[in-house]
Amino acid sequence: MLRKKYCLKKKKDFERVFKQGKGFRQDFLFLxxxxxxxxxxxxxIVVSKKVSSKATERNLIKRRLREIIxxxxxxxxxxxxxxxxxxxxxxxxxxxxxxxQVVDKLLLKAKIR
Length: 113
Fold this sequence. Notes:
4-stranded mixed sheet
């Protein structure tokens, strides 16, 4: 579980990252990133109903992504607001290792690691 200081929660923060941030795509994930004025990075995860109509499956995907990000936080650059948006290719059968590899590639592409 991510600590509160690492969570992007407010709607205005999400909107700012969506409007002004840079976007990167890798397989079934899309990442938007923007510098912030804080001493730490904040992460938001979006899993829409288009990915799965079942809330339990969407929550499983969010939990997996949160755990991957939690492990990667010490390696990441500070002062970034990051939103990870899932797309249709990801589902509950996608392995944890596969998701982790895609997140690694995405973070390298975005120059966050």
